Amino acid sequence: MMQQPKVDIGEIVLHHASDSYEIGFDGVFNNRFVWHWQKWPDTHLGPLTVNLTPTKHVIFMTLAAVLVFVTMRLAGRALVRQRAGETAPKGFAAGIEGLVLWVRNDIAIENIGPNGAKFAPFILTLFFFILYMNLLGLFPWGASPTANIAVTAGLAILVFLVVEIAGFRKLGLKGYLKTIFIDIPGVTGPAGVIMSVLMSPIELVGKFTKPFALAVRLFGNLVAGHFVILSLFGIVLLFGYLAYWNWMIGVTTAALVLGIMMLELFVASLQAYVFALLSATFIGMMQSEHH
């Protein structure tokens, strides 16, 4: 009978989802496909001590950024050549152009309003960057940086800063303060002022709950998807790589995992869309003091 390799399914699941200084799966294939690297010496910045060693998620974030650049560069150059030859866009370039126009028109401009065009590059960058980060985690030895709460929190903080700074520049000081000290419909005079002051902490907290929801939603969906896929695939490893009498378990599980992988492709795209959509919505809400 085929000897089953010793694997720790829990370790595989946690190792894939967590950040580390290695790429691969410990305990699988006798560690032949695990790449480790050493941490760099600590850097001292006054009273702070930081370590700038790139982790697995940093590497895949960088790869995602490079893929976004290459995608746009190749599509842009192809479109220039096609239009120079007075031919309609086709193939890869046409697909990327259609996707860019959809994000620009139906997400950015539709939700932000007349000023949406100037925010479109930011929304487009968020969409494609998150999409590539989500998809990279579906490769066998890949990783989704968006399954790291620090990454999604960083993206959410960036959106928060754009929302608040753009809102302040659009509304001015008086208009911006009205997003915190709101006018209560039907309540005027001293009572209205008192109610506005009493409601201000709730409005102020609301400004921070929006980016918090962005970060947690993206993080939770990506982590949950990877946990389900790897846990189910672990059944194949547990019962012996489709061997002998347990082949039916392996085939059934493999088919189930394949179906969930197809679903994860959809989820990866959906989460990029939702993050971009909510970001555009929050920006649009702050562009008017009557929100």
Mean pLDDT metric = 81
Task: Write down the Rg.
Answer: 24 Å
Strand content: under 5%
- What is the total domain count? 1
Q: What would you call the quaternary organization?
A: single chain
Secondary-structure content class? mainly alpha
Side by side, the strands of the main sheet go: 1-2
Count of alpha and pi helical runs: 7
Q: What series of H and E elements makes up the topology? A: HEEEEHHHHHH
Helicity, as a percent range: 55-70%
Shape call: globular
Structure description:
The protein has 291 residues and is mainly alpha-helical. It contains 7 helices and 4 strands; from the N terminus they run αββββαααααα. The protein has helices at residues 9-17, 56-84, 91-112, 116-136, 149-178, 189-238, 247-286, and strands spanning 22-23, 35-36, 43-45, 48-50. The chain is globular and about 75 Å long.
Question: How is this fold's topology laid out?
Answer:
Elements (H helix, E strand, L loop, with lengths): L8 H9 L4 E2 L11 E2 L6 E3 L2 E3 L5 H29 L6 H22 L3 H21 L12 H30 L10 H50 L8 H40 L5
Antiparallel strand pairs: 1-2, 3-4
Helix pairs in contact: 1-6, 2-3, 2-4, 3-4, 3-7, 4-7, 5-6, 5-7, 6-7
What's the short version?
With 291 residues, the protein is mostly helical. Helix content is 69%, strand content 3%.
